[in-house]
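Ticket #4471: structure export looks truncated?
Reporter: QA, pipeline team
Priority: medium

Steps to reproduce: submit the single chain below to the structure queue and open the exported record.
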Amino acid sequence: MLEITRLTVEHLAQGCVTDCPAPRIGFAVQSDRNDAELTDAILQVGDWNVHLPRDGQTGTAYKGPALLPFTTYGVRLTVTDNTGAAAEAETTFETGRMETPWRGQWISDPAFTFTEAKVSPVPMVFRKTIETAKTIARARLYATAMGIYEVELNGQKLGRQYFAPGFTSYKSYLQYQTYDVTALLTGHDTLTATVAGGWAVGSFVFTRKNRVTADRQALLAELRIEYTDGSVEVIGTDSSWEVTENGPVRMADLYDGETYDATHKTDGWHAAAPEILKITPAITAEYGAPVTAHEVFKPVAVTTAPDGETIYDFGQNFAGVIRITLQGSAGQVITVRHAEILNPDGTLNTTFLRSAKATAAYTCRDGKQTYSPRFTYMGFRYAGIKGVKPEDVEVEAVALYSDVEHAGAFHCSNELLNQLQSNITWSAKSNFVDIPTDCPQRDERMGWTGDINVFAPTALYNFELSRFLEKWLRDVKAEQRPGGGIPNTVPVQGYGFPATMPEMAVDWWGDACVNVPWALYEATGSIDILRTMYPTMQKYVKACRFWAGFGIGKHRYIWHTPSVLHFGDWVAPDVPKMSQWQARSKYTATASLFYTSSRLAAIARILGKDQDAALYTDLSRKVADAYCSVFTDGSGRVEDEFQTAYVLPLYLNIFPENVRAKAAENLVQLVEKNDYKIGTGFPGTPYILFALADSGHADTAFKMLLNTQCPGWLYEVRVGATTVWERWDGLDENGECPISNDGTDQMISYNHYASGAVGAFLYRRVLGVEPLEAGYKRFRFAPLIGGGLTEADGTVDTPYGKVHAAWQLADGVITARVTVPMGTVCSVLLPGAGEFTLGSGTHEVRGSL
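Actual output as written to the record:
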C-alpha cells in the first residue's frame, strides 16, 4: 500500500497562514513494499499544477498565479510508485495580509509614562465593543503588539500561543498573528487585549535594560469580517478603543514573574490614541514556531522548608509556569517562587537566579479558581508556595516551549546514556522559547549564538526545526554588523558587545551564521537556507579574515586578537578561570577561521559559485598550514597541550594525513592522564568523541563518554541531573555548588544545552545514522559498537519519512534492522558484513565482531 504520510505548507501540516508569495510544499510517502520508488508526483494548488522533480519532496515553491490576500487555498498531491500504486492527500493554507496596508493604527495610552529603570511596565489593557447585524461568512482578527500580548473575545482567550507576537529583531521584523473568530462572534462582542512589556519594552538582558524598542506598549489589530452578502467590514485599532493600566495583571516581567489580583475590578478606562513607533519593521504573518503549553507535571515529592514554605518537586528541570487550583477566599495571597536546585537545608536555591525574582503572586477571589501566569515563564524543578495549605491546593507545572515537532529518538542498553539523552532533549525544549536561548531561569535567557552554533546538529536529530531556525536566522542576517561581525546574542535587544563594534567577529559564536544554516541544510535538504544566508556568511568570513590578517608570513592566517575579545575554550573544566579559557583563543579562533572558510567553500560549490569555492578553499588551506606551522612541532604535537587544541584540528582535518595518527595518540595521552574526563570547552566538546573514535581510538571515546566522574556527561546524570548543565562542576558529590570567584559572577545554569552537543555522537556513531547527502537522500547506517553496549535503537525523521535503526549484540553476532524511507538510499557498514546498499523498506542484516 502506498501512503502519503506528510503534506506540509511552509513546514506546517495544518493551520498555515502565510504572507510568502511562493510558499513551499513538502511531503513524505511510504509503502509496505521493499524497494518502492516514486515515479510521479502531481501537485495542485488552486488552478495551478505541476509534475514535481524527483527531489521535490523536500520542498517545492509555489509558482502559479499571484496569491491573493485573505484567501484559503486547497492543496492536492497525487503520487504514483513503480508498481502503479497511487495515493492522494489534501490540505489547505491561508494567505494573510500579503502587504495589504493596515487600516488599523498603532495605539497606546497617551497618558502613560514609564521611566523606572530595570523593571517592566504595568500591563496595558485595551478594549473595543463590536456590533454586527448581518450573517457572517468568515471573520479573522489580525493582531500584533509592541510588547507581548493576549487577546480575549467575550472573555475567551484566542489562540494557544504564549508571548505573541514573538521575539524578533524588532527594528527589522515583527510578526502578527491570525485568529479565526468566525464561530465566536455573537453580534454584540467585546475584544480585550492585554499587552505586557515583554522583550520590546520590559527589562531584558542581565543589565535589565528596558524600553529598548519602544517607550511604552502599543497595539495594532484589525478585525476583518466577510458577510454572506459579499460585503466586508474592517474594524481596526484607533482612538475609538479604550485603554487602562488598571487591569488584574499588576506586574509582568520575563525575569521577575507575574502578579495577578483576581479581586481587582478593571476600571479607569479612557480613550486610546494613535502611537508613532520609533521603528518601522516589516510586519509579516507569523513565520516562526510559537511558544505553547506542552507536558504537565505533577509533584513527585512535597516537603516543608524550615521557614514554612511548602516545596514541590516536579522531578524534572524545565521551562514553564506553575498552575494552581484551589477553593480560595477573597484577598488571600499565594506566593510561588521557583528554583532549579535546593540548598542543603531544603530551601530553594535562588542565588544563581541573580537579579531575577522568578516569583508569581496571586490574590484570590472567593470560590474555586485556577491560576497560571501568562506573561512570564521560569526555569525550575522546584516551586515553593506560601499562603495556602498543601491539602487545600492542587499544584501542577506546565512546560512551555516553541511548537516544534519531535523528530528523533535514541535508546540503548545503558540507562545512564538513556537519561543523558533525556537530559539533552529537555535542555533543548527548555531553551527553545521562541528563540534558541542559553538558559531559562536567571536574568539572561538570551539568544547566545555560540550555544546553538555547537548544538544545532544534535538539536536537528531530536526536533524538526525548520520554522524555528529559519525565523532566528532571519534575525541573524538582520543583526549583522556593517563590517560583517555577528552579535554574540541575536536578537541583540539591549546587549552591546560586540554589536557596538562594526567590524568585530567572535569565533565560534558568530560562526552560527555559517554552521546553523549548514546543519539545517544537512537535516532538511533545503538549499533555500544556504542561498538566503550566503551573503551573510561571506561578510562574516571576510570579517574573520580581517581580524586574522595583522601578522607577518604565516601569522597572517593566525587569528590572534586580544583574548578579551573572545570566549576561547569557554568553560573548559581543566582550567578554573574565565581569563584562562579566553587565553586559548588563538587556537579556537584560528580553527574557527578554517572551519567557516572550508564550509563556505562547500556551500559555494553547492550554489554553483565555483570561483568563490576556489577562493575559500585556498583560504582554508592556508589557515590549516598556519595552524600546524605555528602551533605544532610539525609532527602532531601541539605547543600548548590541552584537549581542544588537538580535538579541533583532528575533527576538522586540519592536520596533514601523515601526522594525524600521532596527533590522535597525543590526544589519547591527555585523556588518559586526565582519567578519561572531559577537558574541552564549548568549541571542542561537540567533537572530542568523534576526534577520538574516527582516529582509531573508539575505546577511549567510549571510556570518556561513559565516565561517571566529574567532569563528564554521566557524572551529571549520576548525581541526579535531569537536564544538561552549563558547567561540568555545577554540583559536587554533596549536592553543593563549588563554583567560586572565577570571573563569571557565579555563572551556573542547570539547564544549558551546549555540552549536550554530544547527542550527535549518540545518533551518528552509537546508533550509526548520519546523512551522506542533504536531507538524508542518501544516508549511512554504520553503528560503532563498543563501551559494553549490547543494543541501540532509534529513529530519525527525515524529509522523506522516518528512518528506524536498531542493532543488538549477542554472543559476538550483530543483528541490525533499518527502515529506509521511500526516496532514499541507505549505505550499510556493519562489522563482519562489509558495506552494501539498501533501497526503501525494512531490512534485517547480520554481522559479527
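Status: closed, not a bug. The export was complete when the record was re-opened. Leaving a note from the reviewer for reference: The first strand starts at residue 2 and ends at 9.
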